Amino acid sequence: MNKHISRFRLRSMAAVVASALAATAAWAVEPFTVRDIRVEGLQRVEPGTVFASIPLRVGDTYTDDRGSAAIRALFDLGLFKDVRIDVNGNVLVVIVEERPTIADVDFAGTKEFDKDNLKKALRDVGLADGRPYDKALADRAEQELKRQYITRSLYNVEVTTTVTPIERNRVNLTFTVTEGEPARIKDIRIVGNQAFSESTLLDLFDQDTGGWLAWYTKSNQYSRAKLNADLEALRSHYITRGYMDFRIDSTQVAISPDRQDLSITVNVTEGPKYVVSGVRLEGNYLGREDEFKTLVKIQPGEPYNGDQVTETTKAFSDYFASFGYAFARVQTRPEIDRQNSRVALVLQAEPSRRVYVRRVNVAGNNKTRDEVIRREFRQFEASWYDGDRIKLSRERVDRLGYFTEVNVETTEVPGTPDQVDLTVAVVEKPTGTLQLGAGFSSADKVSFNFGITQENVFGSGNYLGFNVNTSKYNRTISLTTTDPYFTKDGISRTLSIFHQRTTPYYSADGDYTLTSEGGAIRFGVPFSEVDTVFFGVGIERFKFQPRSSTFLTMSQWYDLLGMSNYAEYFRLLYLNSVPNAYLRYFGCEYGGVNLALNCSRDSVWGIPLTVGWSRDDRDSALVPTRGRLQRANLEVGVGGDYKYAKASYQYQQYIPLSKQYTLALNGEIGAAKAFGGKDYPIFKNFYAGGLGSIRGFEQNSLGPRDSITQASLGGTKKAVFNIELSSPFPGAGNDRTLRMYTFLDVGNVFGDKECRIADTQAQCDQRYKAERKWRASAGVGISWISPLGPLRLAYAVPLRKQDEVVDPNNPFLPLIPGDRVQRIQFQIGTSF
């Protein structure tokens, strides 16, 4: 401490001496007329900067006061370490010593903060490349760095500033940071609570003493901002349960001597629990008192609920705004009977004046065009202010998905009491993704995939997606583009083309492939603000390509049932690895000496028409906690080689049980049927099994199976139902990016009854009954919003499944194939 005082005194004395010398140099001269002014010592600063700053010109009379003023003016520029004025006859000589210029600012040892962000922060306060070096500014920057680290619980941080002189009067600045270990919350105590246990109240906090996942959640790292949010959650918990007089008396944060542990103590006073005795309206309600009464959320006879009071006053304000009263004042005045712990609430309203919107401005959109935002607005300029339309407009802009924040600000027009301006302030986010991947497996060998999507191409609001997959069993190339405002009325248009070649992974060495290709156009027509109906038409072609040329007919298989030559049996089984349903659909017959396969057609084509409807009011697409999603779709084949109808409907509901728990319900049904005397196209079947359907079974493996190859064929009917309870992951606190869930799945896909030639009627009925049996599973899973996207991992145990039943006449072909069970499944992407 004494050392610091001594340094301060020395610096002060030096400053006084320097001032005295400067004053002596400036004031010891008799006044004279300045004939010329010279500047010496300049290296980077322009002479014009000096001449413009000093209050002296050629021809002026030099005085002591003017000399002092010139010195002060040059020092105020912040560009010089030293300034002197000499007089040579009638010539004024200004001698300066420039401050060094900062050549580079760098950081060493910073792990908690990004270097670029730190450089930007210092640039905002004047410490950046090309700026004059200021020791005082560098010291302030050092202290600010320490303060920022303290907000991250790094109390032992040390920051050292190194100034390295280089040529041409420049310096390099290096801030060397030793971050140390963050201080951990060792203990959190709540004192004064009576109505609720301490553990119940601490569950409301996002900060805690940490679990085994504290390294990921960092929930045990103290943050004042997070503590304030936790205290607000604590206050809300009491206020919504009748404790109007609840208050937080004090919050004490104690740090250990080694600055590694923190203890937090929150002292509270609960007060009595109040019951609402009545609600009364006072003021001007535009003659619509009955309408406003329907908006009251407060329930007399129930405990006082602060959230209900807030919801009611907001509903009143919004309703006033729908009539143009943007500045309506709604206040709640409690009339408290402390003796009986009862409260009567008086809602006082004053609509003020009615206004209309003069102008709608857009701010913050550096990439997105103004028209993309404006076309979502339902509040028009020069129209009466309508709070409902403004709220709807904000939601529509937010649902675009291009922005992290969307706010609508209302400002009065100066001098015009009945006009306001609206400013839509947005914060943009990246809307493009680039996916590059490669994989290796014993089946696929090396495969590559590439995908690029841009939801806001060149800021136009259009979508563009391109995907390529080179997998051996599933090769795909597709291109999709969407114009959400193909017409001014908001009708969207989607164009897509695709080519896909699929080889079922269960077939032997790729015994057949199914190639599909085509394109489609779809229009989305907004029938209301929340409902969109889609109409589309496409053209597609499916090509069937068997590899093997030797097959057996069903009658030949029947003759084979008694074969004793097992090696020949398995050879023929290998050759006949194409599902009979495909052979039948493509009109394949056997003939010739080698049983060569002759198909009446190797490809079919069709023209599907689609009609769909969707409504989505969930609060989030990634981690929804409330709201519902509904989808309905009808696809009809009207031309080509197949005619059919295929309909599906999906309903999802998310119910928040508490801050930590969310119940999700999902149901999906579908049905399809051929018409016009055509066979139903097997490649249009429904499938079930796996993530997003019935977990615990292999993906798309449920439903009818081919009697020879055991290939999954799908079905013309589908029903899937899911119940899922989402909860905090153990050790992760209330972190919503990492969640745990338990689930129950029920469902199946169903097809028509088909019998093998060798079957008896009883065996055929037995297999058909097994195929139609509902499957069920239950389990637990993890959902994680990872840097690569939403990841879901599930462990499921089948509760209801089909075991294999051996055919007594042929032990090599099961009468009823068993379900393909897969207990552990995961994927990156969105699914229920």
What tags apply to this protein structure?
single chain, 832 residues, alpha+beta, Ubiquitin-like (UB roll), 16-stranded antiparallel β-sheet, globular, disordered N terminus
Q: What can you tell me about this protein's structure?
A:
The protein is α+β, with helices and mostly antiparallel strands and 832 residues long. It is built from 16 helices and 37 strands. Strands 18-19-20-21-22-23-24-27-28-29-30-31-32-33-34-37 form a 16-stranded antiparallel sheet, with no helix packed on it. A three-stranded mixed sheet has the order 2-5-4. Strand 13 and strand 14 (342-350) form a beta hairpin. Helix 1 packs across helix 3. The two termini are 64 Å apart. Residues 1-27, 439-444, 505-509 and 563-572 have low confidence and may be disordered.
